[in-house]
UniProtKB/TrEMBL annotation:
InterPro entries: DUF4867. This is DUF4867 family protein. It comes from Enterocloster aldenensis.
Length: 221
């Protein structure tokens, strides 16, 4: 798969078990995610068009591993377990959170990642991003300094991704205040700061800041 993805794309596609990934995150080991993966395989669908994202799925949060992650990985902080399924193939923009995100690949997919320290005046250059391949069954932690958005598919069938975050992330803001710092202009939802490509109308209509500079690249498979 990696060989084919690198052959058909003009940007390198890197593995998450290599040195290139070390500043973006790490592979999570020692947890049994089989109950969550089984739920996703049997009870979640890939939409015909676009993506579907559910921040919190109560049935998934009842899984034994969810409690273990809350008490161990997140040090007792409350978490939410949800998923993102879809057919995305383009960069579109980037988001980040204050707190690590766990992604569990129910299918193979690619991730387009950057670093928050590469943001300049609320803008980010497409050319600074790197692309990573995540193999089915792999769980990764993405650090809070890692820019990311939706996975990109590597087959016609689309992708399935389990997403675990601090509780309340990616939900509507209850109190929107005037920005104190420039970063405040990027705040779109609770614990969700976003830089969007100006041509990505769904994000722009939601109020995302149009700060992604360059071509909205499409990844091929």
């Amino acid at each position: 798969m990696m060989e084919r993805l690198n052959r058909v794309n003009t940007v390198p596609v890197c593995p998450v078990d290599g040195r290139e990934f070390e500043t973006y995150g790490r592979i999570v080991k020692g947890y049994d995610f089989s109950e969550l993966i089984s739920y996703m395989e049997t009870r979640s669908d890939i939409p015909e068009n676009g993506n579907v994202y559910l921040p919190s799925v109560p049935e998934m949060e009842q899984a034994q591993v969810a409690g273990l992650l809350r008490d161990s990985f997140y040090g007792g902080m409350d978490i939410q377990v949800g998923y993102c399924n879809g057919r995305n193939t383009t960069y579109n923009g980037f988001e980040y959170h204050k707190g690590s995100e766990i992604n569990i690949a129910v299918t193979d997919f690619m991730l387009v990642l950057g670093h928050t320290w590469e943001i300049r005046d609320n803008t980010y250059r497409v050319e600074d991003a790197k692309v990573f391949f995540v193999e089915k069954g792999t769980a990764i932690e993405m650090y809070q300094t890692t820019l990311h958005l939706s996975p990109c598919r590597v087959t016609d069938k689309g992708f399935k991704d389990i997403v675990i975050l601090p509780r309340g992330t990616n939900t509507p803001l209850e109190n929107r205040r005037q920005p104190v710092e420039e970063e405040g202009k990027l705040l779109l939802q609770r614990n969700k700061w976003v830089i969007a490509h100006p041509g990505r109308e769904p994000l722009i209509r939601q109020g995302a800041f149009p700060g992604l500079l360059g071509e909205n690249r499409e990844l091929k498979y």
